[in-house]
Amino acid sequence: MTEHVQITTAAGTFDALAAGAPGDRPVLLLHGFPQASTEWAHQVAELGRAGFHAVAPDQRGYSPGARPADVADYKMDELVGDVIAIADELGWSRFDLVGHDWGAAVAWHTAAEHPDRLRTLTAVSAPHPAAIARAYKEDEDQRLRSQYISVFQERSAEKRLLVDNGAALRQLFEYRPPRSHINDYITRLSEEGAMIAALNWYRAMKWNVPPDAVSVPTMFVWGTEDVAFGSTAALGCDKWVTGAYRFEMLDDLTHWIPEEAPEALTALLLDHLGSPVS
C-alpha cells in the first residue's frame, strides 16, 4: 500500500510517496518537470508489492518544506546532495536509483559522482547529459528540440505557464498523463513560489557541467516520439556508460513514459532490478 511520508534533511523536509517495508531493498525514484512524486504512483505501488522499499520524493522546490528562494540553490550539486541526504536519512547505504526527465539528469550525475552508493541506475527519457550536449552541438534537430529551455529561463515564464488554469502546461503534457495527475501538478505549481522554484532548475543550468561516464549497471528507456530528446542523443548515450548497459527504445511513446505506459515501464524496471533480495 502506498503512503505519504516526510523525510527531513539539512536542506528541509521532503514530501514523498512510499511503499514496501523499510528493511526491503531500497529504490529511490526522482520525478521530472513539471511533475511531482505522483508520476511514480504506479511504479511505487508495484515495487512495494514486489518486495522493494520504494520512495519517490517531491524534489527540491516541489516540496513546500524544501523550497529555497535563490536560483543558485538549484544547481546540480545541490540536487545531487539532496539524493544522498535523503538516502542517508532513510538509512540506505546502497540503493537503486530511477529518474525521469530532470530526475534522470540528477540520477545520471548521482551515478557518476557516487557509484559506491548505487546498485543500479534507470534513466527514463533524458539521456546522459554529455550525450545531450554533444547532440546539441552536432545536430540541428536537437538544437530545435531544446529551444524550450531558453523560454523556461525567462522571468515571465511562470506567469505564462500558469495563466488560464495552466493551459500551456496542459499542452506541454501532450495530454498523455492521466487528467487527475495533470490537475494535481497544476494545483501544486500554483502554490506560492512553486512555479518559480521549478523553473529555477532551468535557470541554474549555467552552473552545471556534464558528469563523467557512469560505471553502475544502467538501463536507459526512451520513447521514439519524445519531443525533447531526439535519436542522436538517445543513441549516443551508450558512449557514457562503462558498466553494463541496456537501451530500451519504446515505439510510438512520448516523453511521458512513466504515466503513458506505466505497466510497460514497471515490467522493464522490475526486470532490470532483478531479485528484491539481491
What's the structural domain tally? 1
The structure class reads: alpha/beta
CATH architectural designation:
3-Layer(aba) Sandwich
The overall pLDDT, averaged over residues, is 97
For the report, how would you describe the main beta sheet? 8 strands, mixed
Number of helices: 12
Residue stretches low in confidence (pLDDT < 50, at least 5 long) are: none
N-to-C series of helices and strands: EEEHEHEHEHHHHHHEHEHH
Query: How is the largest sheet built, in terms of strand order?
Result: 1-2-4-3-5-6-7-8
Name the CATH class: Alpha Beta
Rg: 17 Å
Termini gap = 22 Å
**Helical percentage:** 40-55%
Folded structure, characterized:
With about 280 residues, the protein is an alpha/beta fold. It has helices at about 40-50, 75-90, 100-115, 130-140, 140-145, 150-155, 155-170, 180-190, 195-205, 230-235, 255-260, 260-275, and strands at about 5-10, 10-20, 25-30, 50-55, 95-100, 120-125, 220-225, 245-250. The two termini are about 20 Å apart.
